[in-house]
């Protein structure tokens, strides 16, 4: 004979069912919103033009929410693993040549693509999400997608947020150069974080993405330091920051690269093999060109790209009144073209505290994530866990 459940047990079961039902409805709503918005439909067609030869892009195609299958178990399973969409970012331009004169402003809006891996854990109190900033400028997030699989491996739990900065990848690429600058990229990041309703997060930047990560946390610290006492911050809380293969000065890393190229030319003057020899020595030391990297460069931007877009960048410390910046981890590969001299400033002078660690990945170069993903993911997850 089946005994009735105790009252307390019955209440617990009903409570868990209610939570599960609510989460499922939320994911259904997200699927529906992505599928029915004109932007999502238009972008879905655009995504189909991307190469599906890589595991990364194949996974992306498999997990796009299909309008024809919006409530199926397959769609919901995909929604539990990934969620992606677009936010509108704006650019305002004056209609007069002299900015001191009064005149109308012309506002344009552009689609910024984001992708969240394990979105159900975005508000977790156990593991805050990791927000990932890609490099370039102009090299989209494809080459960093493997990070989501190695952070917390073998059972990843933490949500990971990727987005393609304006001008590359699945985001729009305005042709007007006024749409691009480090300051505007920081505005886009700020806007995205608020749109995703993040309360706290860890910030990771690779190469140029590390420059954005540093400048963002510095901006927030200076903004909070300038507020009158008692006024709370409107920005979500950044718990920690990771700078991977990020130089403190662009001219310094360009000089190092030119020296490496000169040495490689002395060793072999065959210009047709120079780029590949450079890659194998200090960019990505894997015999075959990694598919995620191939996908990223295949969809790189053409308007605002490379160090030519930021030739005079030099990192400067925050103002004296700035609030304390997040604790930091600085990483680079042993054979990285971003040399130890290029990163030493992060630890010595640029953060307004001494909680900055440095980690060198042995036998790796600029793309250490793709060369030794397990070790890389363990370092990132361990650091984030310390500050959760």
Give a written overview of the molecule:
The chain is of the alpha/beta class and 388 residues long. It has a single domain (113-387), classed as 3-Layer(aba) Sandwich (Rossmann fold). 41% of the residues lie in helices and 16% in strands. It is built from 13 helices and eight strands. The longest helix is centred in the N-terminal third of the chain and has 30 residues, at 7-36. It is globular and about 60 Å long.
What are the main properties of this structure?
388 residues; globular; alpha/beta; eight-stranded mixed beta sheet; single chain
Strand content: 15-25%
- What is the number of domains? 1
What is the subunit arrangement here? single chain
Structural class: alpha/beta
Query: How big is the Rg?
Result: 23 Å
Question: pLDDT average, as an integer?
Answer: 83
- Helix content percent band: 40-55%
- How many β-strands, per DSSP? 8
C-alpha geometry? globular
* Biggest sheet character: 8 strands, mixed
CATH topology: Rossmann fold
- CATH homology superfamily name: Alpha/Beta hydrolase fold, catalytic domain
CATH first level: which class?
Alpha Beta
Separation, N- and C-terminal Cα atoms: 48 Å
Low-confidence stretches: 9-79
Strand order of the largest sheet: 1-2-4-3-5-6-7-8
Question: What is the strand and helix layout of this fold?
Answer:
Elements: H1 7-36, H2 38-48, H3 55-63, H4 73-81, E1 82-94, E2 105-117, E3 130-133, H5 147-150, E4 160-163, H6 182-195, E5 200-206, H7 208-225, E6 237-244, H8 250-267, H9 274-283, H10 291-298, E7 327-333, H11 340-350, E8 356-361, H12 368-371, H13 373-387
Parallel strand pairs: 3-4, 3-5, 5-6, 6-7, 7-8
Antiparallel strand pairs: 1-2, 2-4
Helix pairs in contact: 1-2, 1-4
């Amino acid at each position: 004979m089946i005994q009735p459940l105790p009252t307390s047990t019955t209440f617990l079961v009903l409570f868990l069912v209610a939570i599960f039902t609510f989460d499922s409805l939320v994911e259904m709503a997200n699927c529906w919103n992505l599928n029915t918005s004109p932007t999502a439909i238009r972008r879905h067609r655009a995504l189909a033009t991307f190469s599906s030869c890589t595991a990364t892009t194949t996974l992306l195609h498999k997990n796009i929410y299909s309008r024809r299958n919006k409530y199926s178990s397959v769609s919901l399973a995909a929604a539990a693993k990934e969620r992606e969409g677009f936010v509108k970012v704006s650019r305002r331009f004056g209609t007069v040549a002299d900015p001191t004169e009064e005149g109308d402003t012309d506002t344009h809006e552009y689609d910024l693509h984001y992708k969240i891996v394990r979105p159900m854990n975005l508000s977790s109190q156990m593991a805050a999400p990791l927000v990932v900033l890609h490099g370039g400028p102009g090299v989209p997030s494809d080459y960093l997608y493997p990070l989501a699989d190695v952070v917390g491996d073998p059972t990843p739990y933490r949500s990971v947020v990727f987005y393609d900065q304006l001008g590359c990848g699945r985001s729009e690429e305005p042709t007007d150069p006024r749409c691009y600058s480090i300051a505007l990229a920081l505005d886009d990041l700020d806007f995205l974080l608020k749109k995703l309703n993040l309360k706290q997060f860890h910030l990771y930047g690779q190469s140029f993405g590390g420059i954005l990560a540093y400048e963002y946390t510095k901006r927030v610290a200076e903004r909070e330091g300038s507020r009158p006492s008692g006024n709370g911050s409107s920005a979500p809380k950044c718990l920690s920051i990771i700078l991977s293969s990020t130089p403190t000065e662009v001219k310094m890393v360009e000089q190092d690269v030119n020296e490496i190229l000169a040495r490689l030319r002395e060793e072999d003057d065959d210009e047709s093999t120079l780029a590949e020899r450079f890659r194998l020595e200090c960019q990505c030391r894997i015999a075959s060109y990694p598919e995620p990297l191939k996908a990223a460069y295949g969809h790189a931007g053409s308007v605002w790209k490379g160090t030519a877009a930021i030739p005079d960048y030099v990192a400067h410390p925050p103002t004296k009144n700035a609030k304390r910046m997040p604790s930091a981890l600085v990483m680079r590969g042993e054979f990285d073209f971003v040399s130890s001299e290029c990163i030493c400033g992060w630890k010595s002078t640029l953060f307004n505290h001494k909680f900055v660690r440095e980690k060198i990945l042995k036998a790796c170069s600029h793309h250490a994530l793709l060369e030794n993903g397990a070790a890389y993911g363990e370092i990132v997850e361990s650091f984030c866990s310390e500050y959760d």
